[in-house]
Structures are given as structure tokens and as C-alpha cells.
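Session log. Operator J.P. requested a structure for one protein chain; no other inputs attached. Running the standard single-chain path with C-alpha cell output.
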Amino acid sequence: MGQQKQMITVWENAAAMATAAAHAFVQDVNQAIASHGQFTIALSGGNTPATFFRQLAEPAFSRNIPWHKIHVCWSDERWVAYDHPDSNFRMAKENLLDHVPLTASHIHPIPFRGKPEQAAAKYEQTIRRILKHSKGAFDWIMLGVGNDGHTASLFPGTAVLTEKKKWVSAVWVEEKQTHRISFTYPLINRAAKTVFLVSGPEKAAIVSSLLGKAGSKNKYPAAGVHPAKGINCWFLDAASAAGIQAG
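Structure written below.
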């Protein structure tokens, strides 16, 4: 691994963090479209991204975004139907997709029918087609981080952590007794920008381990995110950043 390009910003609260991320999104979208004609993003699930999605849907941001030139994918998904309460697709749909003029054919949810392994292979084919004009790299891959250090659906102790070839993989999460579909490191680390949105005091310890001076960060899956040619960008609120600020 070469020198990691990393950017860390800390904001007063989750709302301020979401606003800052929305400003960055508008800038990066327009730069990417000027450069190569489209913007590709993989969304993540969770409460923190929901706040960010609602910001993007507000006219102040939405009117400055060429939605018809954006392709939307997901960095991971639960093995549930699109209308299930746990669906990352449903969360994005309710908070963002239903409120902006995205082209329907540019929305690419992870399939959930059949067998998980087949769905993962099918989604990888979709991803490769979408990214064929950008050398296989997303402009943005959104990520979060769990209290156990997982990101996307790359959980500690799962076989997917050692995947070297597949871009998308089925994951059995033993502790949750469920299948998930997830991007792998080979795809995540191709991105022009990986974007972590993290908020809340319950995340302070793991953020300190990952980004602070102390701690053995290599044992956490989130520490495996280091784009080879891109930027690893962290948007934190003050509560989640308390450990690194104190250090």
C-alpha cells in the first residue's frame, strides 16, 4: 500500500456534517461530469446517510445537481425485498430518490431474488457495464463504520475480507444470521473517492482506533479502505471525533 490520501473534517453535529457533505457532493458531481460526462455513486445505508440524502433533495442543493447524468448504485445491501424496512434501497428511495429527477434506468439496486451468490455475480456485471467509461472506478463510494469496525458488509472474521478478484460478493454474517451483498476491497479501493459519514458518541472509540494515533487499526475491516489512486474522505461530527480530537 502506498501513501494514503486521506481527508478528515469534523463538524459541530450530524446536521452540519450532512450539509458539508452535500456541498462536497455538488462540487464533485459537476467536476466529474465536466471531466467524463457522468457521475457514478454507490450509496450506503443507515441513519447518518439518511440525513445527507434529505439535504441533497432540498432545492438549495438539488437544483445544482445534473441528476440525469448520475448513476446510482449501492455499496452493500441486506438480503431483503426492496420494500422491507431494513432495505438500504428503500431508505434511499424514501429520503432521496423519490424527490429528485433521476433517470429511472440510472438507478441500479442490488438484486435480492435467487441465490445470494448469483445476485452478487449479476450485480458485478451491472457495475462493470456502468463503469466501463471510467476505468472501473466509482466517483464516490459512500461507506459507514460499525462499532465492530465493519464497513459496507465487510464484517470481522468473514471470508470476504480476503477476496482478491470479485468486485461484489455474497456475505454470510453469522452474528446476524443473514446474508448480505457487498462491494469488496478490490472494487472499493478503485474509487476516486471513498466517503465515510460517521456520527454519534457510540462511534467515538472505533473512530479513535481507526484514525487516532493510538490503537491497532489494521484489525478492523474499515482500515482496509485505502483507494489506490483516490482519496479516503471522512466526514465526522464532533461526538464521533471526540477521541481523535482529544488525542
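Operator note: The longest strand covers residues 231-237.
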